[in-house]
Amino acid sequence: MANRVPGPSQPSKALGDVVELAGWLPPRELSPNARVHHMAKARHTKATRQTIWGAVKHAEWPEQPARGAPRLLRITLRKKGVLLDDDNAVAWCKAVIDGVFDAGALYSDARQWCRLEVRQEKGEPCTTLELFEEGPA
């Protein structure tokens, strides 16, 4: 099999350890399908951002320089029961993405700096975060 040049779908370099939060998923209140008071949602958003910030800092992910290569953030949600639609899963993870940004591992969550990949699997509740440096397109 020939070697392939890394591209948008093939990350070239893992940055730091995999962050695995066993037994933890973003709160249901952050789902776009949830109907909660805006102050309750704000509390859950803040708690989620702080949880992810702490996990990323503990894993010592490197900060992304202002003119650095784009990064791929892969979020894997493992949960029991029915999986969410893809667009709802991404929206459910917004506070997670913001927590990674708060920790400095992403310069911005804009498309030119970060490519996002949200995966869902059935199983025991767990959230896994992986960060890669993107190869040349």
Essential attributes:
five-stranded mixed β-sheet, 5 strands, single chain, 60s Ribosomal Protein L30, Chain: A, 3 helices, globular, 137 residues, alpha+beta
Please, could you describe this protein's structure?
The chain has 137 residues and is an alpha+beta fold. It has one domain (13-133): 2-Layer Sandwich (60s Ribosomal Protein L30, Chain: A). The chain has three helices and five strands. It has helices spanning 38-59, 86-92, 94-102, and strands at 13-14, 19-22, 71-79, 114-122, 126-133. Strands 1, 2, 3, 4 and 5 form a five-stranded mixed β-sheet that branches. Helix 1 (38-59) packs across helix 3 (94-102). It is globular and about 40 Å long. Mean pLDDT is 87; it is low at 1-7.
| pLDDT < 50 stretches | 1-7
Q: Can you summarize the main beta sheet?
A: 5 strands, mixed
Helix content: 25-40%
Q: Tell me the strand percentage band.
A: 15-25%
CATH homologous superfamily grouping: Holliday junction resolvase RusA
Number of helices: 3
The figure for the number of domains is 1
Q: If classified by CATH, what would the architecture be?
A: 2-Layer Sandwich
| CATH top level class name | Alpha Beta
For the termini, the CA-CA separation is 20 Å
* Mean pLDDT metric: 87
